[in-house]
Amino acid sequence: MVDGVITLAQEAGGVTDAGLAALGKGLVYGLAAIGPGIGIGLVFSSAIQAIARQPETAGDTRTTMFLGFALIEALALIGFVLFFILAA
């Protein structure tokens, strides 16, 4: 895939620093979103299983689930902010 992008860049006048920076920015945010996406899926999956197995602890499980969700989502936001820092 990268070879194809570089070939297209060469046809358009060569590989430039701006073009490589744009690729880098896209990769930074794309990779920063993979981990939190997987983590959020695991948190909600585990919470659903826990509530299904022990419905009487649903309140405590839900609280812990949202706490984990907030911490994982913070990682995605840090990646988003890093994307804008590199854009400057």
Short description:
This protein is mostly helical and 88 residues long.
Describe this structure in words.
It is built from three helices and no strands. The chain is mainly α and 88 residues long. It has a single domain, classed as F1FO ATP Synthase, CATH 1.20.20.10. The longest helix has 37 residues, at 17-53.
Record the SSE blueprint.
Elements: H1 2-11, H2 17-53, H3 58-87
Computed CA radius of gyration, to the nearest angstrom = 20 Å
CATH class: Mainly Alpha
The string of secondary-structure elements, in order, is HHH
CATH architecture: Up-down Bundle
Residue share in β-strands: under 5%
User: Which topology does CATH recognise?
Assistant: F1FO ATP Synthase
Low-confidence stretches: none
Mean pLDDT: 82
- Class per helix and strand makeup: mainly alpha
- Number of helix segments? 3
